C-alpha cells in the first residue's frame, strides 16, 4: 500500500514555530515515526512538505494511479485553496485532513476548510497523534474490502 503524506506551508518550522500551539517535535521527528510505523505495517509512506501550492498539487497529480491514500495537513491552504481541493478530487484518492491544533478553537478564519467536505475524515487538535490516527485509518482502509 502506498501512502502519500503531504504537509503544507510553514510546517517545516515545527519545533520552532509557536510551540505552545504546535508542540516541540520537528516535522522530521514526526515523519520519521510515521515512516517507521508504515513500514512495520507493510506499507510505504512517501512525504512532501512544501510552502508552494503548486508543488503540493503536482505531487498529488504525480500519484495518480499509484497512490492508495493521502494524509494531508494543508496548513493555511486549508482555508484558502480551491485548487488543492480540485487536485485531490482529480485523482479520486481517499484522504484524511489533519491539523495539529484545534482549528475550531482558534480564529474564525480557521473554521472553514475547502477540503473537509470531500475528505474521508478530519482530525484536529490532537497534535502529532492525529497523524498516527490518520495512518491507522489509512492502513485499515488498505486492508478493507475496497482496497
Ligand atoms: C494547521 C492549522 C492551520 O490553520 C494553520 O494555518 C497551519 C497549521 C494545524 O496543523 O493546526 O499552518 O494546519
UniProtKB/TrEMBL annotation:
Keywords: Amino-acid biosynthesis, Aromatic amino acid biosynthesis, Lyase
Pfam families in UniProt: DHquinase_II
Annotated binding of substrate, by residue: 73, 79, 86, 100-101, 110
Signal peptide positions (record): none
Record keyword Amino-acid biosynthesis present: yes
HAMAP family: AroQ
Database matches in NCBIfam families: aroQ, PRK05395.1-1, PRK05395.1-2, PRK05395.1-3, PRK05395.1-4
Family per record: Belongs to the type-II 3-dehydroquinase family.
This protein's name: 3-dehydroquinate dehydratase
Taxonomic classification: Bacteria, Pseudomonadati, Pseudomonadota, Gammaproteobacteria, Alteromonadales
Gene that encodes the chain: aroQ
Amino acid at each position: 500500500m502506498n501512502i502519500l503524506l503531504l504537509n503544507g506551508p510553514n510546517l517545516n518550522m515545527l519545533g520552532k514555530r509557536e510551540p505552545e500551539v504546535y508542540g516541540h517535535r520537528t516535522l522530521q521527528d514526526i515523519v520519521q515515526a510515521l515512516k517507521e510505523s508504515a513500514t512495520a505495517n507493510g506499507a510505504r509512506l512517501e512525504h512532501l512538505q512544501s510552502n508552494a501550492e503548486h508543488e503540493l498539487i503536482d505531487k498529488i497529480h504525480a500519484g495518480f494511479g499509484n497512490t492508495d491514500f493521502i494524509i494531508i495537513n494543508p496548513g493555511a491552504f486549508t482555508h484558502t485553496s480551491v485548487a488543492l481541493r480540485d487536485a485531490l478530487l482529480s485523482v479520486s484518492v481517499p484522504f484524511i485532513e489533519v491539523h495539529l491544533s484545534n482549528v475550531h478553537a482558534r480564529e474564525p478564519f480557521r473554521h472553514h476548510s475547502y477540503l473537509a467536505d470531500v475528505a474521508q475524515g478530519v482530525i484536529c487538535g490532537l497534535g502529532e497523534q492525529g497523524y498516527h490516527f490518520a495512518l491507522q485509518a489509512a492502513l485499515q482502509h488498505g486492508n478493507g474490502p475496497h482496497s
